C-alpha cells in the first residue's frame, strides 16, 4: 500500500463527503478507492470513516488523522518542490474560482502568459458569484471582490478596484441626469444582493472621507453581476460597479457614467485559499502572477487619469 496515496484518497473522501466523489475527483476507479481505505484502516488498526446509506463522515479518530494528513501532505509537496526541478516547473491541476466578470475580462485574456510560464500546470476554472466551499469542493483558490467573509482562509490582497456610478441612456432620458447628490431623491436604483452573505447593497459615495449610503427606491434586485448590469441597461435605475466591468458598455454607449465628481468607494479584490494550501507551489505561483497582473496598466481595474491636452 502506498501510504501517501492512501492519505490523499482519505483526505478527499473527508472533504467531499463520499467515496464516489473522491474517486471522480482523483480520477481513480471507485473500487480502488474502497480498497485503499480498507487497507489504510487495517494498517492503522482503527476505523477512520463512518459509512451510512446517505453520507460518509470521519470518526473521531478519522478527524484527528485527517488533520495530520493535511499537514503531512502539504509538507511533502513543499519538500518535493524545494528539492526537485518542480520548484522551477510546478505541475498538476490547479482549481480556481472567480467572479465571471473578472474571469472573462481580466484573467482569462491574460492567461496565455501564465500557461506559457508554467506549461505543466493545468487550470480548472469556475466562473460564478456563488459562495464556494473550498475544502468540500476541492477548490485551491478563489478570487473575490469586496470584504473577505471567511476568516479561516488565507487572504492575499490583489488590488483596489475603481468603481463608478452608471445608468442607461434610456433611463436618463426618462428621469433626467443627476447633477449632484441631492438629485438622487428623484431617482431609482438596481439593488445587488450578495449570494454569499445575503447582504443587500444600494449606492455609496465618499463624502469628506466618509462612506455615505444612499438607499433609493427600487423595482429590481439581483444576485449576479451580469444580472445587475442587464437590469441597469434595461432602464431600472442606477448601479455602481467596478470600472473594468463597465468598459465595454461605456465604449458602446449602452451605459453612461453619472455623478463623475462624486467618488465611489473602491472595491478590494482578494485571493483566498485554505491554510493547508499555503505551501502549495501551484497556488503560490498563480497568486504571485495575479499580483503582477493586477499591478499592470491596461487591466481596467484602475481608471487612467484624463489628459489635460
UniProtKB/TrEMBL annotation:
GO terms for molecular function: DNA-binding transcription factor activity; sequence-specific DNA binding. The keyword Mitochondrion does not apply. Belongs to the LysR transcriptional regulatory family. One of its GO terms (biological process) is DNA-templated transcription. SUPFAM superfamilies: Periplasmic binding protein-like II, Winged helix' DNA-binding domain. The keyword GTP-binding does not apply. Residues 1-59 form the HTH lysR-type domain. PROSITE patterns: HTH_LYSR. It comes from the Bacteria. Keywords: DNA-binding, Transcription, Transcription regulation. Coiled coil: none annotated. Gene3D superfamilies: 3.40.190.290, Winged helix-like DNA-binding domain superfamily/Winged helix DNA-binding domain. This is DNA-binding transcriptional regulator, LysR family.
